[in-house]
């Protein structure tokens, strides 16, 4: 189920990146976020119920809950125009916990640690945009989400489903360099196509948060099943 959650997060991040760049209407992205977030919360519940008090699996379930709640929250905001400040501050919590997950996976699964670190960066951008109203980062956040989404969710999920989850520091270092290059490329594209970005109003008037969508979900763990806690 961990790989399913990663793929779902890849879909959500792709849609939210396009929404931030003004390519998808808020209601369309909101509906998909709500569906994906709800499904991830169901999967997280199933993981927790079948965890048999296994701390690693419960930690994974908690990670899925974080991202499932993000997508659900974003979906509700987009559909009912609730404002973005709440989801923005929630993203700050997700970003902080993503750092904790990254550190906890550093020794056993450095590749997972790199993925969690990239999600911490994305969710920090969502916090700046949605909670603090930093509209200047809208285009960069959209491009960063769009460019990094599939590399940090869908690609690892496909590798995991084929029994080829990257292990070792070599794979982690390569992934870190590639992700850093994508974040850099996002800055270039944001400056080049800045006019195409959506400018968000002040947080209290922001119509429907369109950003998050990690991510992310649970990450594979190296032992019995590659899944340590998309989107």
UniProtKB/TrEMBL annotation:
InterPro entries registered for this protein in UniProt: AmiSUreI_transpt, AmiSUreI_transpt_sf
The segments labelled Disordered in the record are: 202-231
Q: Which residues cross the membrane?
A: 31-51, 58-76, 82-101, 113-133, 169-190
Gene3D superfamilies in the record, alphabetically?
A: 1.25.40.600
The superkingdom of the source organism is Bacteria
Q: Where in the cell is it found?
A: Cell membrane
Q: Where is the composition biased (Pro residues)?
A: 213-225
Q: Which keywords does the record carry? A: Cell membrane, Membrane, Transmembrane, Transmembrane helix, Transport
Membrane topology qualifier: Multi-pass membrane protein
Record's family? Belongs to the AmiS/UreI family.
Would you tell me the protein name for this molecule?
AmiS/UreI transporter
* Naturally occurring in which organism (per UniProt): Arthrobacter mangrovi
